[in-house]
């Protein structure tokens, strides 16, 4: 099981997670992990530095596409064609550049809040309009509102769907049946699905991730996937993602992306992505085990010390969606948690109106840090 760096090492990092707050704050907000890099990645980057290999990325992607394809085949039984992929700076760039070619100015794109906050900005950046079709919640689990998506597409309010899969902040792994139904709905209306699958390699044991492009012929015809190793291997600062198609017009769109989209990929990002998917799988398994341990630990800690807080264990990634509304700390309890407990969480309302009373917590830390964070919040709650 992967072990997190100690706090004294982490506080020497200069990334957003560790630079945004003073040292008395435990930062459990932005999606960065506290674990060391996979040894294969560290070795490859060190070797590149030693030979001065710090130039521009090659148009081939430096093996990142082939490594991802191999990983996808082994992990998910899906064999995407590297010839139908293009690299890009990050998943957000894949989303914006694809949407610019999929929608006319002002056309609607469906998102499913509570959802990754940049979705609310990426859609208008591409010239489109956000159409919200919130997830359904039966009190036990969330799922896509397929009838709502159908209605939005049928009315012309929306042209397609920006899917978060697995879903951030819920850690929801959409099941194959719902994805197949989504593909049928979208195909019936001549729409598209752009599937952000950045958290997919972090799917937990006992859950099955189904790539959208593997669901059906319809999904392959109208879908594009945005893939990356940045969350799985903690590589966000190195800048590499993949736009993936399965043929037809969507392959033409992906392969027709401007050369500058590929050219802005980080060379180190491509190296690290290749090494992670090709040679970092044992490290990834250990990291998922550490995250799963913390997901279980959080449930026990909350039951013991903050029973008012509701928490559904995620099925993927290292993000926990906490309902803090019973504490009476208003629509944005993360602000109170930061002020009174000195723990930085991500504000729930950033994920949409459905996030009022919620906050997102990053589980990719040591058990000791997680325990201290819950203790601090519990003390703040007891103090009123």
Please characterize this protein's 3D structure.
With 384 residues, the protein is an alpha/beta fold. The chain is 41% helix and 14% strand. It has 15 helices and 15 strands. The protein has helices at 7-10, 16-19, 39-50, 64-76, 91-102, 119-125, 146-154, 176-188, 217-222, 248-255, 259-263, 267-279, 281-305, 333-341, 367-383, and strands spanning 26-27, 85-88, 108-111, 129-132, 136-137, 142-143, 160-164, 193-196, 223-227, 241-244, 310-311, 319-323, 343-344, 346-347, 358-362. The strands form four sheets. The protein has a seven-stranded mixed β-sheet, sandwiched between helices. A four-stranded antiparallel β-sheet has the order 11-12-15-14, covered by helices on one side. It has a two-stranded parallel sheet with strand order 1-13. Strand 5 (136-137) and strand 6 (142-143) form a beta hairpin. Helix 7 (146-154) packs parallel to helix 8. The protein is globular and about 60 Å long.
């Amino acid at each position: 099981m992967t072990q997190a760096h100690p706090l004294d090492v982490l506080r020497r990092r200069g990334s957003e997670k560790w630079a945004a707050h003073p040292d008395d704050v435990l930062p459990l907000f932005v999606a960065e992990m506290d674990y060391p890099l996979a040894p294969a990645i560290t070795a490859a980057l060190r070797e590149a530095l030693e030979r001065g290999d710090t130039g521009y990325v090659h148009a081939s992607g430096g093996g990142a596409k082939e490594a991802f394809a191999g990983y996808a085949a082994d992990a998910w039984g899906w064999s995407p064609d590297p010839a139908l992929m293009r690299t890009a700076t990050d998943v957000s760039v894949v989303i914006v550049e694809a949407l610019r070619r999929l929608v006319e100015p002002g056309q609607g794109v469906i998102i499913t809040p509570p959802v990754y906050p940049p979705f609310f900005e990426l859609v208008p950046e591409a010239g489109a309009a956000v159409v919200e079709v919130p997830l359904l919640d039966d009190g036990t689990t969330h799922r896509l509102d397929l009838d709502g998506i159908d209605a939005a597409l049928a009315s012309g309010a929306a042209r397609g769907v920006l899917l978060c899969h697995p879903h951030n902040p819920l850690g929801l792994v959409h099941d194959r049946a719902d994805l197949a139904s989504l593909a049928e709905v979208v195909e019936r209306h001549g729409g598209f699905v752009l599937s952000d699958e950045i958290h997919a390699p972090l799917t937990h044991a006992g859950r099955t991730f189904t790539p959208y492009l593997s669901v059906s012929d319809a999904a392959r015809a109208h879908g594009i996937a945005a893939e990356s190793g940045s969350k799985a291997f903690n590589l966000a600062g190195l800048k590499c993602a993949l736009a993936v198609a399965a043929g037809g017009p969507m392959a033409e769109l992906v392969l027709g992306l401007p050369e500058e989209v590929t050219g802005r990929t980080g060379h180190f990002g491509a190296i690290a992505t290749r090494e992670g998917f090709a040679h970092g799988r044992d490290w990834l398994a250990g990291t998922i085990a550490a995250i799963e341990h913390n997901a279980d630990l959080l449930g026990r800690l909350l039951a013991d010390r903050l029973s008012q807080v509701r928490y559904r264990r995620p099925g993927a990634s290292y993000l926990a969606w906490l309902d803090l509304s019973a504490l009476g700390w208003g629509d944005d309890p993360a602000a109170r948690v930061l002020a009174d407990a000195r723990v930085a969480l991500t504000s729930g309302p950033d994920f949409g109106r459905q996030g009022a009373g919620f906050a997102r917590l990053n589980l990719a830390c040591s058990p000791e840090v997680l325990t201290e964070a819950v203790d601090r919040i519990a003390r703040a709650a007891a103090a009123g």
